[in-house]
């Protein structure tokens, strides 16, 4: 794990990964720009309905405040979702540099990729349904709820990061997961912690996908250079 993370950090300057970061940042900012415009018009329209003549100015202020609050609360979630959309490009960049033979493998067919996405969605829903009552019961502890959701995210992220690499190279449905459960959980836990640190949270999915690529190929081919 430490070596995989170190190699992932060392490759952050790779042009292919920089392109992914720039694309994901631009898409994230564009989404928030659209969201901010919607808030502005909605606020102006609402205030106009109750304070004719003041809607434009007050709406602009209210829309700005709401946009700042939404950005503070949602930026990490939106950025993570956008970046995950480009995660396959990160995997390909790592394979091209460190595992050239693996880089020749074609991506998943659309139906298999769709099936994997639906399974991931179901897994996320089930895990959250299971842990939510526990998290609510632990609200009085102050830290218990965050801990429960953190552990759930560690499990889900570890599995998702492994799948985005492994499913590209799995030979049959009978193939077992190349990364053990504890390793997956540790990787997911590291990424989960990184996601709550400002600025680093934007790099967390990139480092997670790159580290998962190293871990998967190292387990599949122990003699692979690392």
Give the helix/strand layout.
Layout (H helix, E strand, L loop, with lengths): L1 H9 L4 H36 L4 H31 L1 H12 L1 H4 L6 H28 L6 H26 L11 H14 L5 H21 L6
Q: In brief, what are we looking at here?
A:
This protein is mainly alpha-helical and 226 residues long. Helix content is 80%, strand content 0%. It has helices spanning 2-10, 15-50, 55-85, 87-98, 100-103, 110-137, 144-169, 181-194, 200-220.
Main sheet overview: none
Helix content: over 70%
Instruction: Write down the domain tally.
Output: 1
- List segments where confidence is low: pLDDT < 50 over at least 5 consecutive residues: none
Structural class: mainly alpha
**Counting H and I runs of at least 4 residues, what is the number of helices?**
9
Order of helices and strands: HHHHHHHHH
Distance between the termini: 11 Å
Subunit organisation of the chains: single chain
Number of strands: 0
Rg calculated over all Cα atoms: 21 Å
Shape: globular
Approximately what portion of the residues adopt beta-strand conformation? under 5%
Global mean pLDDT:
77
Task: Describe this entry's structure for a reader.
The mean pLDDT is 77. The N and C termini lie close together (11 Å). The chain is 80% helix and 0% strand. It has helices at 2-10, 15-50, 55-85, 87-98, 100-103, 110-137, 144-169, 181-194, 200-220. With 226 residues, it is an all-alpha fold. The longest helix is centred in the first third of the chain and has 36 residues, at 15-50. Helix 4 crosses helix 9. The chain crosses the membrane at residues 20-43, 49-75, 125-152, 185-212. Keywords: Membrane, Transmembrane, Transmembrane helix.
């Amino acid at each position: 794990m430490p070596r995989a993370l170190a190699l992932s950090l060392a490759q952050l300057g790779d042009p292919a990964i920089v392109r992914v970061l720039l694309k994901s940042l631009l898409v994230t900012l564009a989404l928030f720009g659209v969201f901010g415009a919607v808030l502005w018009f909605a606020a102006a329209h609402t205030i106009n309905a109750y304070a004719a003549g003041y809607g434009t100015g007050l709406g602009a202020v209210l829309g700005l405040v709401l946009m700042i609050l939404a950005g503070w609360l949602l930026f990490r979630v939106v950025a993570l979702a956008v970046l995950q959309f480009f995660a396959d490009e990160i995997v390909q960049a790592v394979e091209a540099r460190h595992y050239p033979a693996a880089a020749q493998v074609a991506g998943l067919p659309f139906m298999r990729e769709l099936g994997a996405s639906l399974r991931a969605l179901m897994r996320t829903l089930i895990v959250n349904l299971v842990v939510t009552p526990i998290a609510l019961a632990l609200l009085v502890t102050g830290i218990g709820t965050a801990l429960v959701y953190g552990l759930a995210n560690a499990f889900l992220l570890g599995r998702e990061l492994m799948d985005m690499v492994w499913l590209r190279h799995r030979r049959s449905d009978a193939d077992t997961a190349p990364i053990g459960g504890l390793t997956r959980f540790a990787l997911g836990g590291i990424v989960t912690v990184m996601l709550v640190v400002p600025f680093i949270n934007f790099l967390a999915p990139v480092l997670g996908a790159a580290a998962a690529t190293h871990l998967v190929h190292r387990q599949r081919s122990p003699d692979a250079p690392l």
